[in-house]
Amino acid sequence: MKYPIKEAFEAQKNAYAPYSKFFVGAALLCGDGRVYKGCNIENSSYPVTICAERVVIGNAIADGNRDFKAIVITGGDDYCYPCGMCRQTLAEFCDGDFRVVLAKSENEIKVYKLSELLPESFVLDK
Ligand code: THU
């Protein structure tokens, strides 16, 4: 699987983070090979802020794509782990085999399965 690392760094450049100055990018690889991009979008009313991961998931879903294979996350100067809310959002659409890739640079990455980052996750039967 070719992870969309470059796309995550591209999206990070568009992050709107004037309050925290912590810029996050995310790129979501879908089963059909398409890649969606997202960045964090902050707000002067702080809780209105949305993380890069949830932005990219929304972008893909709004485009009719819900078959997710991997997400690449970039943020700050180190590996940027997804927050709990974003892990739960991923669990809504992805199985435990879904890959979460943290990229510190184009060639420094850590790869996790979603089941490692959110074991025993909450689900309701649909
Ligand atoms: N942030 C993300 O976009 N993703 C994460 O997984 C962690 C945090 C953003 C939210 C806020 O704009 C900034 O990083 C600092 O918390």
The secondary-structure class comes to alpha+beta
Order of helices and strands: HEEHEHEEH
Helix content: 25-40%
CATH architecture: 3-Layer(aba) Sandwich
Number of domains: 1
Silhouette: globular
CATH homologous superfamily classification: Cytidine Deaminase, domain 2
User: What is the CATH class?
Assistant: Alpha Beta
Q: What is the strand tally? A: 5
**% residues in beta strands:** 25-35%
CATH topology: Cytidine Deaminase, domain 2
Q: Major β-sheet, in short?
A: 5 strands, mixed
Keywords:
26% strand; Cytidine Deaminase, domain 2; 4 helices; binds tetrahydrodeoxyuridine; 5 strands; alpha+beta; 126 residues
Helix and strand arrangement:
Layout (H helix, E strand, L loop, with lengths): L4 H8 L11 E7 L4 E5 L12 H11 L5 E8 L8 H10 L5 E7 L2 E6 H4 L9
Parallel strand pairs: 3-4
Antiparallel strand pairs: 1-2, 1-3, 4-5
Tetrahydrodeoxyuridine binds next to helix 2.
Report on this structure:
The protein is of the alpha+beta class and 126 residues long. It has a single domain, classed as Cytidine Deaminase, domain 2 (3-Layer(aba) Sandwich), CATH 3.40.140.10. The protein is 26% helix and 26% strand. The protein has helices at residues 5-12, 52-62, 84-93, 114-117; strands at 24-30, 35-39, 68-75, 99-105, 108-113. The longest helix is centred in the middle third of the chain and has 11 residues, at 52-62. The radius of gyration is 14 Å and the shape is globular. The structure holds tetrahydrodeoxyuridine.
